[in-house]
Design goal:
The chain is of the alpha+beta class and 168 residues long. 31% of the residues lie in helices and 36% in strands. A hairpin with a 2-residue loop joins strand 5 and strand 6. The radius of gyration is 32 Å and the shape is rod-shaped. Keywords: Membrane, Transmembrane, Transmembrane helix.
């Protein structure tokens, strides 16, 4: 090997090829260190949009098409008569409170969740035009959740409390 093919840097003597390999590995190590120490910055607004898209969209429980005719929450039976929600006897709610409970269920929005629902509060039965029926379960833990037993899917309730939905 010729003398001019060797390079001496910081007291180390190596060939040109060996020094090139050292430089390539040093640059790769620097890139890896910077990648893990200071990862690329993402804006928080973009993260929240991505999380909402991943977690699912906000949906309503009952479509507002006028097909809902009755609901039963424990011993409380509500029926739609002449466009007004009324409580059937025996009833512990005033007419205004009964209408409020029904309107809360119609306005209820929710998002899908993978959290398991615990601490069942009650089951709610809905009666629709044509004799169709549906059942949902209302849970208290880890947050107010609705479970659709037929779909085996849990949903997180948005903006409503259990007392607003149950008339307590």
């Amino acid at each position: 090997m010729k003398v001019n093919e060797k390079r001496k840097i910081f007291g180390l003597t190596m060939t040109r090829k060996a020094w090139n390999n050292v430089l390539v590995y040093v640059i790769l190590i620097i890139m890896v260190v910077f990648w893990y120490v200071a990862p690329p910055v993402k804006e928080e607004a973009d993260d929240s949009i991505v999380q909402e898209a991943e977690s699912g969209e906000v949906i309503g429980l009952i479509p507002n098409d006028g097909n809902l005719r009755a609901m039963q929450i424990d011993q409380l039976k509500l029926a739609l008569n002449d466009g007004q929600w009324q409580c059937q006897a025996p009833c512990r709610l005033s007419e205004k409170a009964a209408a409020s409970v029904a309107e809360n269920w119609l306005a209820l929005t929710m998002t899908p969740t993978e959290q398991p629902a615990e601490n069942l509060i009650t089951e709610i039965y809905f009666g629709f035009v044509g004799g169709e029926e549906a059942r949902v379960e209302l849970y208290a833990d880890p947050e107010l959740m609705i479970r659709l037993p037929n779909q085996q899917q849990n949903y997180r309730v948005i903006e409503f409390t259990a007392s607003q939905l149950l008339g307590h």
